[in-house]
Every structure is written in C-alpha cells, then in structure tokens.
C-alpha cells in the first residue's frame, strides 16, 4: 500500500469547476479536429445510403434506414483493407474493450450505485458509439465521475451519518460502508462474460470475416452497450440464484484485493489488446505500404482522431483522481501491450490511490475514526482488539489505527 507521504491527487484540493475546464477545452479541440478531418467521402457515403445504393435491406427502413446504413457502411469501410485498416481497428476495438471494462467495474462499485449515470451507463455508451464519440467522454462521462468522486470524498471527510439537524445523511454507506467494493462476488464473472459475449465476440467477427459479409455483425456490434448491459444483469442474477445458499457470493468484495476475480475481469480486454498491438507492429514491418483506399482512409482517420481525444481525456481522468504515477503506469503499459491493456493495468494501479485505505490515511482524524468504527463491526483485517482500544481509549487514532479495506 502507498506511503502516507504520497501527494494527494488534484481531485482532493481542486474545485470541480476548475477540474472541468480541461475536458471542455478538449471537447472544443475535438470538434475542431473532427471538422478539419471531415472528408467529402463521408458525405458521399451517406448519400449512397440515402439513395439506397448500399445495404438495400437496411437503407430502406423508414426514417432510420439511411442513418443506420451509413453507420454500418462507415465501420465496414474502416476494416475494408486486409492489412493496415484491420490492424488499426483491432487496436481501437481493444481499447474500447478496456474502457468498457473499467466503466462497468466502476459502475458496479457500492460508492456509485446511487449515481444512475455511472451505475447504468448503457445510454451514455450508446450515444458515444452511435453519435457523440469523444465528446461524450469529455462532456458527460468524465464530468459525471468527477462529480461523484467529489461527493464520496466530501462524505468521508465529514465522517458522519447524520446531518447538522440530526437527520440521517443521504448516503450513510459512503461513511460506514466499504464504498470501493463491488456489490457481489457474482460481478467477477458477470462483467467479463457480458463484455466477452456482448462486445468482444461481435468485434472479432467484424475483424475476421470477409468485408462483404460484415454488414450484419457490424449492425449487431453497434448496439453492444445494450447486449453488455442485458448479459451483465442476466448473468449476475443467474449466479446469485444458483449460489444463493453459498455464504460468499451475495457479499460485497474488493476486486483489486482478490487475484483470481481480478485476472478474470480484465483478461479479455488485455489479451485482445496484446494481440492487436503485436499484429499492428508486425504489419508495419511486413507491409510498410499502406493498403487503404480513399474511403477507408477517411473513415479510419475520423475514428483515430476520436480515439486520440478519448485517450487524452482518460489520461486526464486518471491524473485528476489518482495522480501522475497512475498516468505513467498507463502509458508504459500502453507502449508494451497496447492501449486496451494500458487502461486496464492503469486502473488496477489507480485503486491504490483512490481506495479507502489511502483516503483514510490522507484525511486524518475523521477518516481514522470511521475506519475504527467499521473495523469494530467486521473489517477484513486489523479490526480486532486494536480497533476497540481506539474507541475506548482517551486518545485519538494514530498512524497505527487499522484502516478499512
């Protein structure tokens, strides 16, 4: 666990208004960059769909047909060349798999279950995938996480479950609970299974099938947030029903403290990222000539601009909530194994900075009192006699006070 002298991340001492300035500036830069990199080929692609010259069965659907045809054709063109575009898109898709995993994990933590935008991210991901791109990360997802982080930190700083009027606080679990825990052990299987089937499988079909047979897989893939959400909830419910008599399954648990669930959760996006990273490097040496045609260049360029700004936004997110060391770990892992693995490794490292143990050390007396109180009711370790002494003795908690995990 980190040293108590480790600097506090900016989220602890900067105002929310100040923290949100860079994402807004990134959103403006994104809009300008996308406008600059817009290509007449993209407009032509929509015109072909509007004229029913592409994907006839889809483009003729009333009202939404031309737009749906355009989206499917856009991603079909993005993987059209057999070497360069498939290599680029494999890296992009693996990165999205990593982002999808970390946001699903964060949405399943107890501290975020009352934040609807975080706990139920399906609509946000649909807008990102179908319309908004990087702008959704910069103007919706990241601000929502920053706002929630401020709420959690403030609740633990106050260290009370009642208001000044003696009424119950709105979210007492943020003070007395284990907010960084996942809700149940079933999450360790429901998250990876839902992402593997709902996202990774259609992504692989897009990459591996011949380009003239990808219309249906791309159409299915476009709605991956819906499939992932349904599978996540369905698998979790099924596991809890099957293991309802098992003592451990209904209980909350800390993912980063449990090796097997941790590996299971992040295995798919990390393996996909490593494979795509190696494939991209190999193709750059074995096929130095870019085999993309004009339309494929236009679509992949547009996607790459989007993902670069998403990456910058995620790095800023990691810096604000966890400090520069997490950003460095994320960048190193990205160089070694691709951006999908980078964001997953960085997120595991990030937990050491945002976990309750570390918050307890940095927030001082109130947080220590909270830890002692919870420890006396069954904290996982160090919560026995020493916790009782901390409550019954006349002195305030010291650096030796056992902290909640």
From TrEMBL:
Biased composition annotated in UniProt, kind: Basic and acidic residues: 382-392
Record has Lipoprotein as a keyword: no
Protein name, entry field: Uncharacterized protein
Keyword terms: Membrane, Transmembrane, Transmembrane helix
Transmembrane segments: 16-37, 57-75, 87-105, 125-146, 189-209, 215-239, 259-282, 302-320, 327-349
Disordered as annotated region, ranges: 378-405
Signal peptide limits: none
């Amino acid at each position: 666990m980190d040293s108590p002298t480790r600097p506090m991340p900016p989220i602890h001492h900067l105002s929310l208004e100040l923290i949100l300035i860079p994402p807004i500036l990134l959103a403006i830069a994104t809009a300008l960059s996308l406008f600059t990199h817009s290509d007449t080929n993209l407009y032509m692609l929509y015109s072909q769909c509007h004229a029913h010259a592409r994907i006839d069965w889809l483009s003729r659907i009333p009202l939404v047909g031309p737009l749906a045809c355009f989206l499917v054709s856009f991603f079909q063109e993005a993987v059209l060349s057999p070497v360069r575009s498939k290599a680029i898109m494999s890296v992009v898709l693996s990165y999205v798999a990593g982002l999808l995993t970390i946001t699903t994990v964060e949405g399943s933590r107890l501290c975020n279950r009352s934040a609807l935008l975080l706990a139920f991210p399906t609509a946000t991901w649909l807008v990102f995938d179908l319309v908004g791109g990087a702008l959704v990360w910069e103007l919706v997802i990241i601000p929502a996480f920053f706002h929630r982080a401020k709420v959690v930190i403030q609740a633990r700083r106050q260290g009370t479950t009642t208001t000044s009027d003696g009424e119950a606080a709105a979210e007492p679990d943020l003070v007395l609970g284990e907010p960084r825990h996942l809700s149940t052990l079933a999450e360790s299987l429901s998250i990876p299974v839902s992402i593997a089937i709902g996202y990774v499988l259609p992504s692989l079909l897009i990459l591996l099938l011949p380009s003239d047979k990808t219309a249906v897989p791309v159409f299915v893939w476009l709605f991956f947030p819906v499939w992932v959400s349904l599978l996540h909830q369905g698998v979790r419910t099924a596991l809890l029903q099957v293991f309802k008599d098992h003592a451990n399954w209904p209980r909350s648990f800390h993912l980063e403290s449990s090796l097997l669930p941790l590996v299971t959760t992040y295995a798919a996006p990390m393996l996909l990222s490593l494979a795509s990273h190696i494939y991209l490097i190999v193709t750059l040496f074995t096929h130095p000539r870019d085999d993309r045609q004009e339309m494929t260049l236009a679509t992949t360029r547009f996607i790459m601009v989007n993902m670069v700004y998403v990456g910058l936004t995620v790095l800023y997110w990691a810096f604000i909530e966890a400090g520069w060391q997490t950003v460095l770990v994320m960048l190193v892992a990205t160089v070694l194994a691709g951006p999908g693995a980078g964001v997953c490794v960085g997120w595991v490292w990030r937990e050491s900075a945002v976990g309750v143990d570390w918050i307890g050390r940095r927030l001082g007396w109130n947080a220590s009192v909270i830890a002692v109180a919870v420890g006396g009711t069954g904290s996982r370790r160090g919560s026995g006699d020493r916790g009782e002494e901390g409550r019954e003795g006349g002195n305030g908690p010291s650096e030796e006070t056992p902290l909640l995990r």
